Amino acid sequence: MKRLALLVLVVVVFTGFAACDDGDGGGGGNGQVIAVTSSVSPPSYSGACPVTFKFTGVITTNGACRVTYRWVHVPYVQDEKTIEFNAAGSRTVEFYWSVGSWLPSNERWLDLIVSAPNQFIASPMAQFTLNCLSLPNININD
Fold it and tell me: Cα(73)–Cα(70) distance, rounded to whole angstroms?
C-alpha cells in the first residue's frame, strides 16, 4: 500500500519538467530536468546472502543547473544529494544496497526521484528479484 501511495503521489505531482535550481536559493534557473532513468545489477539473484545490488541512474538536463535527487524504497528514503550541471547533458549517479538473508525472498524495487522546488520526476522502478538460499547444516562431528 505504501508503494502504491508513493506512485500515486508521484503521478499526481508530476505535471511537466522539473525546474533546476541555479544555486541562488530562488529555485530559478535556465536548465530543466528532461529525463530520469534507473537500472539495477544484477536484476535477479539466487544464492547465499548478503548480496550487494548496484543501482545506476541517469539524470538528463537541457541546460546548466543544480539537481537534487534521492533513492527511495518505502520505507527507506536516502538523504538528498545534489549534482551540478554546467551545461545540458546527462550525469550518472549510483547507489549500492547490501541485502542480508533477513529480507524475505521476493521482488524488490528502488526509485530514483529528482526534486526541484515545486515538482518531482521519478524514474521507472529499478526492480530486482531476490532469493536468499540457506546454507546446508553441516555437522563437524561426522
Answer: 10
Enumerate domains of the chain plus CATH numbers: 2-132 (2.60.40.10)
Cα distance from N-terminal residue to C-terminal residue, the chain: 49
CA distance 121 to 44: 26
The answer to whether the predicted template modeling score (pTM) of the entire model surpasses 0.85 is no
How many helices, marked H, and strands, marked E, lie in the chain?
1, 11
What CA–CA distances, in Å, run from 69 to 83, 84, 120? 8, 11, 9
User: pLDDT tens digits for 27-69?
Assistant: 445 898 999 999 999 999 999 888 999 999 999 999 999 999 9
